[in-house]
Every structure is written in C-alpha cells, then in structure tokens.
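Here is one chain, start to finish.
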Amino acid sequence: MSGRLIVFKVGSSTLVDETGELDLGFVASMCAQIAELRRRGDRVVLVSSGAAAVGRSLLGFDARPSDIPTLQACAAAGQAKLIERYAEVLADDGLSCAQVLLTRGDVVDRTGYLNARTTFERLLELGVVPIVNENDTVSVREFSFGDNDMLGAIVASLIDADLYVILSDIDGLYTANPDSDPSASLIERVERVDTRIAQMAGGTGSSYGTGGMATKVRAGRAMIAAGIPMAICRGRAPRALVDAADGRGRHTLFEGDGMGGHEQARKLWIGLAGLSRGSVTVDAGAARALELEGASLLPVGVTAVEGEFGEGDTVSVLAPDGHLVGRGITRYSSEDLWRVHGLRLDVIARFLPDRADCPVVHRDEMLVF
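Its structure:
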C-alpha cells in the first residue's frame, strides 16, 4: 500500500495533554509516523486543530473564552506556536511543511476552490507536508466550516484523496456511549449514514474541541458520497497513523458498497463546499428516485420550501423525515418554487412556458448523500 494520498485530521482533544498544554511527545510521534509514510511513497496532508486551545494556554486563560474576539486572539497566538512546533519536528526527519489557512469563503467561490486545489497539488509535488487549519482569526459565522472534521472532508474531496482519517480520542463509532453504557460495541464499517447511524452519534465530548461524534458522522456521510473511504480511530493508539493507513487497528471505516469512482469535482464542490441558502423537502417517491435512480428533482416531488434563495444558489434537499438527501444548484428562486411546487412540468408550462422542461435541481448539479 504505497503511493497514496492520505488526509489526516487531528483534533484539539488529542493534541493537548490533561493540563491543556500542547503534548510535544504526541506531536513528535505523529510527525515520525508522517515521515515513515512519506518514506514509503505516500503523500500526506495534515488537518490540525489545536490553535485556539494552545493559544488560550499561551495567553493565560484557564477556560475557553466565550467571546469571539478573544477566541480569535487565542487562535492567532496558538497557530504560530503550533506550526512552529510542526516545522521543527518534521525538519528533524528532513521534511518541510507549509501552513494553509482556509475559511469557507475561500472555497465557496468556484475559482477560489480551484486555486486552493492547485496550491495543494504544487505543495505535494514539491514534497511538502501541507498543514491545514481554519483561519479562525478572520472567520465569521457565515463562512465558518463549523468544525475541522468537515474541513478535512472538504480538503480530502478537493485534492481527490485516497483516504481520510480522523484521529480522535475514541476508537470509532459505537452503538452507544461506551463511557456510560458497558454494552456498547464498536461499529467497524458504515456503508450508509441513515437515521439509525446518525442517532448513535453523541454530542461534543471535550472542553477543547468544537466537534463530537456527530460531526464525524456528517463527515463520513460526505466522504461516502465523494467515494473516498474515511476512518475514525484513536489518535493516541501506538502507530495510529500508519495502522489507519494500512487498514489495521481498531477503527470505524465509512465506505459505501461498491465504492471506487470519485464523484465529479464540480458535484463535490456543490455538495461539500457550497453554502446552502435554503432547503426543499421532497416526498418519499422523489427521495427514492434521487437516492436510488440518480434522477433529477422535479417540482412535482417538492412538498415544502424553506429560506430565501435565488436561481443558481445551492440548496439542501431533505427527505420527509428531515434527513439530508443531497445538495444541488437550484434552477428556481424560492419565490417561484413556492408557486409551482407539487405541480407537473406540463402544468407549469401553461403559465411559465420557459420552465416547460426545467427541473428544480438537475442530477448533474447535485451531490446525493
């Protein structure tokens, strides 16, 4: 197993020790494993949380600040120390690293998305290890990734990775919370994220991190849609990075049945990077046609419209029970869709002739999850 492109994501709760300080021993172990993977021919991208956690310790805060300016100040101070440490340790193994800070605004724009991909490709060609984090210093809510689990998924899809690994503080997804339920068992493989799987994910488990198992499951759903296998494993297990790359050790693997071909890059950008401006709920028949038959979404299948959006915006498509079916570019504004939802195209053509053959979302412009 060599020559693959692997994205690792490490969270704050895994990076810091029990005192809230950056665990330098763990960083050294992780970097040594990255170097080992590089020596055998694998290319590695590291998505690293931890800047705000490191910065809050550096600036003398005992608890996580609650106001945005102080959090952003912590992120700015911590990012400098974090990347400095990575650079020092990787240099001992003869490797160079590059800091890549992103906001969602950088990839929502199609040109920005393609520019970011080109930068990653060139860094990897040069033998550099890109170290990615959200640019928390300038992020605002609208353009925030929300958590680095999804940031890692977007990076993995952007660079067409062969594997995405989330290094967590738990072995993977369990049937219940193993801390409170002794009967909980590890789920070794997930082929589809349905309501049952989503309900197994708990909330945030650490005072340092912003995510929990729910965010990891959402990332897993995105990776299944993208055709990229994703593993969740305990980051502090011995040789966790190498074992995850080789499919060994305790972990949960998100991999759809028959995965192998990646979705078109444009679909991935629409589904993962684009900001959803609203949502449309569809009936059971339409949801089934989208999920199983690769159909376009027609107005007759729409039962509800939420939010205000224009033609060309990205919208979320929801099943009757509320689960996310997919995201796509709408060919109707929310106002027009309210007028025609539930109607057949031949009926719509009587008062909107230009929409005689117009689906709400064409299958070529929709990523189905």
